[in-house]
Design brief:
- It is a single chain.
- By secondary structure, this protein is mainly α.
- The chain has one domain.
- The protein starts with 16 loop residues before the first helix and ends in an 11-residue tail after the last helix.
Length: about 100
């Protein structure tokens, strides 16, 4: 908002172009996943639904590689979280 109207807030710390490019190393996985999914959809390799599945699978692979977690633990946790969100399993930490 301050870019449009500088009077809305105090000026922020300026970043050099070098710092901006160095910050890209933290988001390369997101960009790679985006281009993989969108390229696959627009390239005709898979449908939008299949692209969503590929994106979810790719995100899981990146998460496992980044956290160095074992696959069984990550899948159990994801299944438990999904079940809690669907209210299929009562949350033991939640008070009635």
């Amino acid at each position: 908002m301050t870019w449009r109207d500088p009077a809305c807030g105090p000026p922020g710390e300026r970043s050099s172009w070098r710092e901006r490019f160095l910050a890209l190393k933290d988001v390369w996985a997101v960009a790679a996943l985006f281009f993989f999914v969108m390229g696959g959809i627009y390239g005709g390799f898979f449908t939008a639904t299949e692209g969503a599945a590929m994106g979810a699978f790719g995100a899981m692979i990146f998460a496992l590689a980044a956290a160095r977690a074992d696959l069984a633990h990550a899948l159990r946790r994801a299944a438990r979280e999904r079940a809690h969100h669907r209210h299929a399993v009562p949350d033991p930490d939640r008070r009635a």
